[in-house]
Amino acid sequence: MKTFFRCVGLIFLCSMANEASSQVRGVVIYDNAATELSTPSPFIQSKDLWVTLEELTRATGFVVKPQGVCRRELCFPLPKQRKADFLVQRGKATWFNLSEFARLVKQPVADDEKLATWCFGPRADGQNGYLETLEAPNFTLPDRNGKLHSLSDFRGKKVLLITWASW
Amino acid sequence: MPGWQTFYHELKDKNFEIVSVAQDTGGVKDAGPWIEKANAEYTALIDEQHLVTKLYSMVNVPTAVWINEKGKIVRPNEVAFVDDRFKDYSHMDAGPYLDAIRDWVAKGERSSFVLSEEELKKRLTPVSPDRLMADVEFSLAEYLYHAGHGPEAIPHFKEAQRLAPDNWNYKRQAWLLSDADRDYGTNFTKEVQKLNGKPYYAPRQMPEPANKPN
Hints:
The structure holds 2 protein chains of 2 kinds.
Chain A: H1 2-22, E1 27-30, E2 33-36, E3 50-52, H2 53-60, E4 63-65, E5 68-71, E6 74-76, H3 83-86, E7 87-90, E8 93-97, H4 98-104, E9 109-112, E10 117-120, H5 124-128, H6 130-133, E11 140-142, E12 148-150, E13 158-164
Chain B: H1 2-11, E1 16-23, H2 27-37, E2 43-47, H3 51-55, E3 63-67, E4 73-79, H4 87-90, H5 94-107, H6 117-123, H7 129-146, H8 150-163, H9 168-177, H10 180-184, H11 188-194
Parallel strand pairs in B: 1-2
Antiparallel strand pairs in B: 3-4
């Protein structure tokens, strides 16, 4: 009998541990910057990433407005019939399905389920934009002292951009 | 890199800049000593996230892009060695390439090495959905690696390599971060052998250096 209780106790502990691991705090990598989410998602069964509206803005800069999901002048309207696929009210919080949004705007996503880490990449039209203008894609990176430089700082000069690696 | 410093010294007063970008997950720890040793006076940046590899669809190092005063690309991705130390891999002489840069710096848009818009659009191709997925898998893997999850990063590095099989940067960088033979079942030497005579670097499509008087 004692053994039985010990087993049950163990199962109970295990299920608690499972509960805890399913509530691992997620990490969102968006525009190459990582943000740790602070509110565990209540959508445990979902393979999609749900975030609160507050965390949506913190992690991605996007804000849900009546006209759509917007960042600066860019706005993506949500399909009227499918609003419930994107926005769900739970208690006081409104949750947003960031994975569904990525599918809507054709944005690639990779995730690691166990480590609850989600990486969102650039949309294809953003990545291919320079093929039309032939403008060299800009970037801002540090030198070895940590000072930031942008390619656009050199406008007015000819630039030989060379990549290399230590490996 | 010391070679590029010499070359830079020759041309730096002609409205010309070298922006070199290290594609190193290890960042300043891995790339810094090389930059220091070269006494580089040109702009030497460090790209821990391989942003330039992704933005410009590069597959190899060293790769160079020529950008004019207006910020427009005039020659896209090309292998760019400053000397002939790696000629076994490149099968190309460095000299004519450096002469081509000199020609461009002297003549600007009149240089025969500056490509027409039509030719540029032919050479620059849109990225495939697989390539975009490869980029996010690689970014995720790098993040996990930095977060102390080296073993968990490996499947994502592998996925990036599977989706972008031509990208040597994604292969070589990942192999370096662990034991390539143990974790990837291969290594650089083995993969180069598999090319079986096919060039490791895409051959340059460049006119013969013109000896036109300036």
